[in-house]
Design goal:
This protein has three domains: about 110-135 and about 250-445, 3-Layer(aba) Sandwich (Rossmann fold), CATH 3.40.50.1100; about 140-245, Rossmann fold, CATH 3.40.50; about 455-500, no CATH class. Helix content is about 35%, strand content about 15%. It is built from 17 helices and 13 strands. A six-stranded mixed β-sheet has the order 4-5-13-10-11-12, sandwiched between helices. About 45% of the residues are buried.
């Protein structure tokens, strides 16, 4: 729709102008810093940062119902800058002019309700939010659209000339970073560090295909992270991991979309997300907090953070019921099919601790919970979901497994409605499905295939078939007739089909 076609009372709100005043605020010493310089940790104490809008109260002057109309009408616009996560411009990057925003199709991924069979099996009504339908096939595009839009703003406004963007990754971050950096060439180039042989072939191919410099190093993700942190501290590079607070801002869009999808009614909703480096769950909490403070929603949904028993430092921290006794301990992790969550020392852990307290205080009761699941449950629930019409990755399986654990622990009531995060496309982790079906899962994972879930191709080549087609040598006449008849009968026999009565 064109702007002139909208109701008069809404027109002035639909195309946002730069506004607000954003700063970096340290979670440790509370020091504040200008956003004119790219910062990742506090120069005073080394803690992680969050971006705060010191003029946030201006957003409260617009009532919740009007905000609903702004977002609902804004989705009808054809302006690329407002098609993606910046539909919520005032809450994500209000200082960025629309002409600097990078839009590659990210955001507004579908929330697909599970079929009756799967909901009965899980014991609750739930939806999968399929973030694998982002451009690089994972939720990381949300944060990259934010971080790269801000860098693009600095470049186009003359504050930066050329940027080398770097990141450590278990696969999805590198794919997203390389894609968005490639779009902004020649002003931005990218380099990514991956743990050698701990990234799926599909994920490795993505940054290579986008033209990034790809470096594989020994160790796990945590080791890659230490290297890129050293690079960002000692060289002129832009760090694109979730230490970058702009990444968190972009990922808040996940919360905003859920709120809009459910008509801003969060009272009986449950949002289930994997933890990994803890940036995503940080963003989810932060997003809902902002919408509550602005009066856009009146209730905070429950949030369930899920970790595998092979990498569960956040779960272990919150398993201590007494907050005064909680001590965070980085872990030595074990292999996990949820590779992106295979992180023993999450960068955003300080953000999690801070925001869990704020979230629960605003709710007036505990609304954030953490559960642990097995590798077996991750694979079984992923395959169960996909055999019921979804495209869930292993992390989507992890989340669905976590939802069932939360129900068993009575953290979630079966009268509530859950939104389950599938962070990436199932094809990124197809190798684990193959290993499961072929009963070749390495012992370290502790996964035994359930024969009811195993599905393998059946080769049909009847022994009595004399002639078969080959590339460049098709069958004709009687040989083709014989081939069709013999093979179709073999397929029908395998499927136990009944012949039509003629």
């Amino acid at each position: 729709m064109k702007l002139d076609d909208f109701p008069d009372h809404i027109k002035s709100y639909l195309i946002p102008e730069p506004s607000g005043q954003l700063i970096y605020r340290c979670l440790g010493c509370q020091s504040e810093f200008s956003i004119r310089k790219l910062l990742y940790t506090c120069p005073e104490c080394g803690q992680v940062l969050l971006i705060q809008d010191t003029r946030f109260d201006r957003l409260k002057k617009i009532n919740g119902q009007l905000w609903h109309q702004i977002f609902d009408y804004r989705r009808m616009l054809r302006l690329p800058a407002l098609k993606g996560i910046y539909r919520y411009h005032e809450f994500i990057g209000p200082v960025i002019p629309l002409q600097a925003i990078v839009y590659l199709g990210e955001g507004h991924t579908p929330a697909v309700e599970a079929n009756t069979r799967l909901q009965e099996k899980a014991g609750i009504r739930f939806y999968y939010k399929n973030d694998g339908q982002n451009p690089s096939a994972s939720f990381k595009d949300r944060g990259m659209a934010s971080a790269l839009s801000y860098i693009n703003f600095l470049i186009t406004s003359g504050q930066l000339k050329h940027v080398l963007a770097v990141c450590a990754s278990t696969g999805d971050t590198s794919a997203a970073a390389a894609l968005y950096a490639a779009y902004l060439q020649p002003h931005i180039n990218s380099a990514v560090l991956l743990p050698h042989k701990k990234v799926t072939p599909q994920q490795l191919s993505q940054p290579l295909g986008s033209g990034a410099k790809v470096y594989e190093i020994p160790g796990v993700f945590d080791d890659c992270m230490k290297v890129v942190e050293a690079l960002s501290e000692n060289y002129e590079v832009a760090l694109l991991n979730s230490k970058n607070a702009w990444r968190i801002l972009g990922q808040e869009s996940y919360s905003y979309e859920i709120a809009q999808e459910f008509e801003y009614d969060m009272a009986d909703k449950v949002v289930v997300a994997p933890i990994g480096n803890a940036g995503n769950i940080t963003a989810i909490m932060s997003g809902f907090i902002k919408f509550l403070q602005a009066g856009i929603i009146s209730d905070l949904p429950k949030i369930i953070g899920v970790q595998s028993h092979h990498a569960d430092p956040v779960y272990q921290y919150y398993s201590e019921p007494d907050p005064a006794k909680r001590r965070f301990k980085p872990q030595t992790i074990k292999p996990s099919v949820a590779q992106a969550a295979m992180i023993g020392n999450p960068v955003s852990m300080p953000r999690v601790i801070k925001l869990v307290d704020v979230y629960n205080d605003l709710a007036g009761r505990n609304r954030v919970f953490f559960v642990q699941v097995t590798e077996q449950a991750i694979m079984d629930w992923q395959l169960t979901a996909n055999q019921n019409g979804h495209v869930a990755c292993t992390h989507g399986g992890e989340c669905l497994a976590g939802l069932t654990v939360a129900i068993d622990r009575k953290l979630v009531d079966n009268t509530e409605i859950a939104v389950v995060d599938s962070t990436a496309h199932a094809l990124k982790f197809a190798g684990f499905q193959d290993l499961y079906f072929e009963d070749k899962m390495p012992q370290d994972y502790g996964v035994t295939p359930d024969k009811n879930l195993v599905n393998r191709p059946v080769y049909i080549h009847p022994k009595n078939l004399k002639h078969v087609p080959e590339p460049g040598r098709p069958l004709k006449g009687g040989e083709l007739d014989e081939f069709i008849k013999t093979v179709s009968e073999a397929v029908a026999s395998n499927l136990d089909l009944e012949a039509k009565i003629k």
